[in-house]
Design a protein that fits this description.
single chain, Maltoporin, Chain A, disordered N terminus, receptor, signal, TonB-dependent receptor
């Protein structure tokens, strides 16, 4: 039965025993049908359950940071990562953009491409897939790719576990999972996690979260199944400040970040999230129906640059009505995946406030009318002050997709897919006051205004794969998709009289994949051309706005391989070469009458290192002793669009795991950055020469004990 086969595929994925990259891993993201990654006509990586457990993964960036072409870092060592795939997501000022995040087939990403990671419990995840580039039928309004989080199916996993961990910097972690088969056809599982970290080496960097999940599954008499998940998260994250060049030099000496001169000393994100989803599968002849419905409601308190966001009435509703049809073409097996999706994100009475407690200096403007105003030097708390803005919004995405996978010959596979979506923004705002970047003060806002804008988004892909031998495949693909601007980008541009268009990302790729019992490797060469690139620029007053002012060309080479040297020792390495340049881009330098526009044509994109590589060795003995060492290197990269200054990156930042497993017991020590390197997670320089650094965490270690029962 197809449903039973689907369940068995999930079990196979969750029980892979290779490290870092599986020697013959399975994908369920690229085609929505369980498929060997070797048979997928694009670059895709799978991080398996053993790797997640051995590395004691608690955050998404820790799981995928060594995948070539992926830039994953966190300035707060919490569930607030910066994720970039082949340059997509680089323009995000905060959070994750341009990348679709899914969990068990349910989208975690909002219609406008924003993802909140604070309600994903990584300790409940058994494997992670990363599908790179545009063109996926899963990726609605996301040109960077898809990250799929796969949890253990309630039907397959009946194990119980308790896990506790303690570490330096005040790290505490506890995770409990219990499950039971209530009857022949009824299954239930529950998990609860609590994690906290003080991060005393840096001011305003505390984090804690509590998460609970309840799952129920039922198998009907016709072998159809339904699986539901109910979860609740409460997360509190203080977000640390950036540093100037002088302050970063001090951090490099001491490993501590205290008393910085950054304006916004009290940024944070405190949230409460409740979510519910249900998935049904039923077989009718050669058709497998897979409808899904999902809902979440959330609230957050989020002080950021200039304003404090306080929003308590937010709801997301969605459905994905999918079917799989198995048939024959050219005398060989073929599969059609098709479906329709609908999702809406509704926010009622979201509020923004000025900071109540600030240190100011009264001054006269350097240009314009001589009206005194108060320059904000720095905040002294995140207490709410005067109401600055209210907003109601509804962002809706409706789409349809299909993908046909066929084999004209025994050794030839063709993937053809198309997805079409309509994205609608309906936003009503009353902006009473705003923060002005040029004067570093609050000023009168533009009052009431509305945004009603629609975008037609198209995504398509043609992939060709040829089986050179039983172990080696070669593929080529061309894929294209659109990315719409976010609501905040549309509002900032509209204020300047700019109407933002969607971007178009077109990717050309060729690759080679080999899977054997002792080694595997992937090679990919690609070129990604982006037109109508949405870029950040500054207006004459220094305020950040957005425009379709750029075109970029991203060329890259990615390699990764795993070698089973002996039964107990596995070695692996990955490498990425990224040649990302502006084809057409101008940015404003200076303020007011002194502002000029400077061409950046031919310059490299900032932040992306040209060379990035990692290596690992994993040792597992039959007597239960195990060890893993992983090291990563980022080469130098430009800090600014003008390419006037480089950051050296970092070399051989190394993580270590030592552990012992005996029957149901497991104890291990995980140390990240074991050599205690003091380096920048990111280094940037704006158009007017101001340098900004965000520190990476010094050495952090945790001892973890788990018992399976």
């Amino acid at each position: 039965m197809k449903i039973k086969h689907s369940l068995m595929a999930l079990l196979a994925i969750s029980s892979l025993n290779a490290q870092e990259y599986s020697l013959d891993s399975m994908s369920i993201t690229a085609t929505k049908i369980a498929t060997s990654t070797k048979d997928v006509s694009q670059s895709i990586a799978v991080v398996d359950e053993k790797t997640i457990n051995d590395k004691n993964i608690l955050n998404i960036q820790e799981a995928i940071e060594n995948i070539p072409g992926v830039n994953a870092e966190s300035s707060s060592n919490t569930a607030s990562p910066r994720l970039i795939i082949r340059g997509a997501g680089l323009k995000a000022r905060y959070g994750v953009r341009e990348i679709m995040i899914m969990k068990d087939g349910v989208p975690m990403t909002d219609p406008d491409s924003f993802t909140r990671f604070d309600f994903i419990d990584m300790q409940d995840v058994s494997s992670i897939e990363v599908q790179k580039g545009p063109g996926s039928i899963n990726a609605a309004n996301a040109t960077g790719g898809v990250i799929q989080l796969v949890t253990k199916s309630v039907f397959q996993d009946q194990s119980n576990r308790i896990k506790v961990g303690l570490g330096n910097d005040g790290q505490r972690n506890i995770n409990l999972k219990v499950s039971d088969q209530l009857s022949e056809n009824d299954f239930i599982a529950a998990t609860i996690s609590h994690r906290a970290i003080d991060n005393a080496w840096r001011d305003n960097n505390e984090f804690d979260s509590t998460q609970a999940t309840l799952r129920y599954g039922h198998i009907f008499s016709d072998d159809s199944t339904i699986e539901t998940e109910l979860s609740y998260t409460e997360s509190n994250s203080n977000l640390p400040t950036s540093m100037t060049a002088a302050e970063f030099a001090e951090f490099e000496k001491t490993g501590e970040q205290k008393n910085t001169s950054y304006q916004w000393q009290h940024s944070a994100r405190d949230s409460k999230i409740f979510s519910l989803n249900a998935k049904y599968e039923k077989e009718i002849g050669d058709v497998l129906l897979k409808p899904r419905v999902y809902f979440n409601t959330w609230e957050h308190f989020h002080p950021v640059t200039g304003m404090i966001n306080d929003s308590s009435d937010n709801s997301v509703y969605g459905t994905d009505l999918e079917l799989n049809y198995s048939h024959k073409l050219f005398g060989n097996k073929a599969t059609l995946v098709a479906g329709v999706t609908a999702k809406t994100d509704i926010t009622n009475n979201a509020e923004k406030y000025q900071y109540a407690d600030v240190n100011t200096t009264s001054t006269l403007p350097a240009f314009g009318a001589p009206i005194p105003y108060d320059v904000i030097n720095f905040t002294t708390s995140n207490r709410k002050g005067v109401l600055a803005e209210t907003e109601d919004s509804a962002t809706t995405l409706i789409g349809a997709y299909f993908m046909e996978t066929l084999s004209p010959t025994e050794n030839f596979i063709v993937d053809l897919s198309v997805r079409a979506d309509k994205l609608s923004f309906n936003i009503d705002t009353n902006e009473i006051t705003r923060y002005d970047y040029g004067t570093r003060s609050y000023k009168t806002g533009q009052g009431e205004f509305s945004i009603n804008k629609d975008y037609q988004l198209l995504s398509s892909k043609l992939g060709l794969l040829y089986k050179l031998t039983k172990t080696t495949n070669i593929y080529a693909s061309i894929a294209s998709s659109n990315q719409a601007p976010t609501g905040s980008e549309i509002a900032a541009a509209q204020d300047e009289g700019i109407s933002l268009d969607k971007t178009t990302s077109t990717n050309y790729e060729i690759g080679l994949k080999t899977r054997t019992q002792t080694f595997s490797y992937d090679v990919a060469i690609y070129q990604n051309d982006v037109t109508n690139e949405i870029v950040q620029i500054q207006d004459a007053g220094g305020n950040v706005i957005y425009d379709n002012a750029g075109e970029t060309q991203k060329r890259g080479l990615e390699l990764n391989g795993v070698y089973q040297l002996i039964d107990s020792l596995q070695l692996g390495a990955s490498y990425a070469y990224s040649d990302f340049k502006f084809s057409k881009f101008e940015e404003q330098v200076g303020y007011g009458s002194r502002a000029t526009w400077e061409s950046r044509d031919g310059n490299y994109l900032p932040y992306i290192p040209q060379q990035q590589y990692s290596m690992f060795a994993a040792f597992n003995m039959e007597n239960g002793f195990k060890a893993r060492v992983t090291t990563k290197t980022w080469g130098e990269y430009y800090m600014d669009n003008a390419n006037t200054q480089k950051y050296d990156g970092y070399q051989f930042v190394t993580d270590l795991m030592l552990g012992y497993e005996y029957k149901a017991h497991n104890i291990q020590l995980n140390v990240r950055n074991i050599t205690n390197e003091y380096y920048a997670m990111s280094a940037s320089k704006d158009a007017n020469g101001n340098e900004t650094y965000k520190a990476a965490a010094p050495m952090q270690g945790m001892i973890t004990y788990s018992y399976t029962f």
